[in-house]
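Worked example 2:
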Amino acid sequence: MVKINHLGIIVDGNGRWAKEKGLSRSEGHKAGAEALRKIILYLSHEKLVNYLSLYVFSTENFARPEEEVNYLMDLFLKWFTTVKKEYRKENIKIYFSGRKEYLKPNIIEAMDTLERETENNDGLVVNFCLSYGGRAEIVDATKTIVKKVQNNEISFDDINEDLFSKNLSHNLPDVDFLIRTSGEQRISNFMLWQISYAELYFPKVYFPDFDPEELEKAFQEYESRDRRFGKVK
């Protein structure tokens, strides 16, 4: 299979998966978390991508019922506090993108600890987009650049696309391939700058059923695409 530099996945369909099975939405999120754990380890073992960005919770998701939000936050907390040893062993480096001020202190502490304890790993880079919005990221980058101009760190004429990219979260490369599970065909405010030339793929499978076999189907689809970046071949 072809290797992808930066893969993005919009994790979607946990609730509908659960509803169709007569389960609670919480049970759907639990199944989705287990599927995601397997996908991360599979990509790490097979060395199929260099960067993996995962849209797991948007800023808009805070508007969901309080019970569901609290369950998800507890799920994230458990995940981030129990995988440190596994990710060190697998040589996985963890980043978090998003506005931490919306999160509880114990979640932030677990995130900071996981980033710190995997910072020297040089294998697969996994970027969890949590409490994240693409527009908010662009606004935050703009504010950072404006402050640098005001402080005479850079000049107005220094501002270009490359500089802007470097002031986004963690200065990650552009997304090459974006997958959104569940059949929904929207990008929902995910990495708006970085997906400018990404190939998009919308499998109908809900995320809890998105296993390595489904991922291989996605990679085969990506391999069939003709990426021209506005040029003519």
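The mean pLDDT is 96. Helices lie at 14-20, 25-46, 66-82, 84-90, 105-118, 134-150, 161-166, 212-224.
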